[in-house]
Amino acid sequence: MNPIKLSSLFWFCALAIHAQLAVTISPVKLTGQKAVVMLAMTNSLSAPVESARAVCFLLDDHGKMIGQSTKWVIGGMKDRPALQPKAGTTFNFVITSPQPFATTNLTAKVSFSRVVLPGQKLANPQTDVKIQNAN
Asked: Most CB contacts within 10 A, which of 5, 8, 31, 108?
């Protein structure tokens, strides 16, 4: 292969790896029998994210799941707009418990199951979404 073409292919792949939906998970905040987990999301894909669905698992200090919630965190409803390229937004998962939480040392694990781009094209949540915890 021509070295110039190979170099161009390398740069294209390198740029494609960095284009993603970046998600930062804030620490869990407890209010009575509710746990609130804020997600801060930034779209660095080249297309708008029409909608994205995620699940938030609430874990105790032993790693045992004590609650979960699945929601459309971007779009998915007529009153929620798409997330445009280079734009950011936040979403609050609220997980309720029928009784007070036994511990205040809770963590959240978030996983995206569906990311929809224009024309109903699906992005790959495993490669196009980068999730990190805020410190």
From this structure: 108
Total count of residues recorded for the chain: 135
Q: What are the beta bridge partners of residue 56?
A: 69, 110
The position carrying tokens 């070295």 is 3
Provide CB contacts within 8 A for 26, sequence distance 6+: 37, 38, 39, 40, 134
**Whether 49 contacts 104, CB under 8 Å:** no
Specify the pTM: 0.82
**Torsion (CA) 121, 122, 123, 125 in degrees, nearest 10:** 170
Ranges assigned E (strand) in 16-135: 21-25, 29-31, 34-43, 51-59, 65-74, 88-96, 107-116, 122-123, 129-133
Q: Domain 20-133 in CATH: superfamily?
A: Immunoglobulins (2.60.40.10)
Q: Which residues 6+ apart lie within 8 Å of 72 measured at CB?
A: 51, 52, 53, 80
